[in-house]
Amino acid sequence: MPLLEEIWESRILTNGGPFHERLEAALCDHLDIxxxxxxxxxxxxxxxxxxxFGDGGEVITTPYSYVATAQSLLWNGMTPAFVDIEPDTFxxxxxxxxxxxxxxxxxxxxxxxxxxxxxxxxIRTIADRHRLPVIYDAAQAFGVRCGSDSxxxxxxxxxxxxxxxxxxNTFEGGIIVCRDADTKARVDRARxxxxxxxxxxxxxxxxxxxxxxxxxxxxxxxKHVGAGIVRRGEIDGLYRQRLEGCRGLRCxxxxxxxxxxxxxxxxxxxxxxxxxxxxxxxxxxxxDIHSRRYFHPLISQLPMYRNLPSAGRENLPVAxxxxxxxxxxxxxxxxxxxxxxxxxxxxxxx
Length: 350
Ligand SMILES: *Cc1c(COP(=O)(O)O)cnc(C)c1O
Hints:
The protein contains 12 helices and 13 strands. By secondary structure, the chain is an alpha/beta fold. It folds into 2 domains: 2-222, 3-Layer(aba) Sandwich (Aspartate Aminotransferase, domain 2); 226-348, Aspartate Aminotransferase, domain 1 (Alpha-Beta Complex). Strands 1-9-8-5 form a 4-stranded mixed β-sheet, with helices on both faces. It has a 3-stranded parallel β-sheet with strand order 3-2-4, covered by helices on one side. The chain has a 3-stranded antiparallel β-sheet with strand order 7-6-11, with no helix packed on it. β6 and β7 (149-150) form a beta hairpin. It starts with a helix and ends with a helix. It binds pyridoxal-5'-phosphate. Residues 41-43, 65-66, 68-69, 111, 137, 139-140, 161, 163, 174 line the site of pyridoxal-5'-phosphate (PLP). Pyridoxal-5'-phosphate binds next to α3 and α4.
């Protein structure tokens, strides 16, 4: 039966219907994790997870991310404390976290940038020493593994985005990954107005439910996501073959032992190089090719955050250097080898 008719026939359009149940189970299986809560999008997932684990105050986070990371703090009345990133992974630099912890710190919110895992062990050690929860913004990390483990097993919770632009999508959607069934129960309550079955409303909550339509799309997409990631890997390899070693260009690679999802293909362009980053970006645009200056400007440069004590350029030199030179090239399963060569030609030619 066609999907929409099946949903209509079931008479359950949202509020945890059969497709919702099936997708949560299928994701646990696919991602090799035990406790998954579907949400309407990853930003709501972050807002919920921070509300469940956090407690106001300051939260250690990265300026080098999509703006949703910090906005989810703002909606909880939390203040971001920006810490600089590592030059190779673009993730929160564990060596700088402790210096930023104050008596007001209530949590750590790192991001697995471009799906490349953070130094999860080092972050765990610091968090344990200071008794802080760790909530990972894993929006870009669908299907990523470090060693033999899903990256989503780390931290007190992780949130993944199923937005249309991500590796796996339900048009809009996402998950919160929890460590145990009790926490999942709290998260499930919070995503449904704080409602606890027959007990009525027992805690803070909002509406972050995923509809049956989006859940059904997820079940369809799940069949194709593996092949999509394989094709992304081929494109990644072809870009590297063409661009690595070219004058003034660098193609950062994930550390050994990581199974990535090739969700992005960032390159770094030396500032002295001609054409420089912005010139390449414009040249590609003239040929109707959409590269992205992710993440420029930094979150710490936006009007809501730039006056914070941790937002100064001197506190974030690596993030500024990367934001000024990075360009993410198109990468998606339908991109042909011929297009990759054409893009590479436009990037390298003087
Ligand atoms: C995409 C993204 C988000 C937001 O996800 P939505 O599902 O669109 O709310 C948050 N953080 C990062 C790092 C992202 O890339």
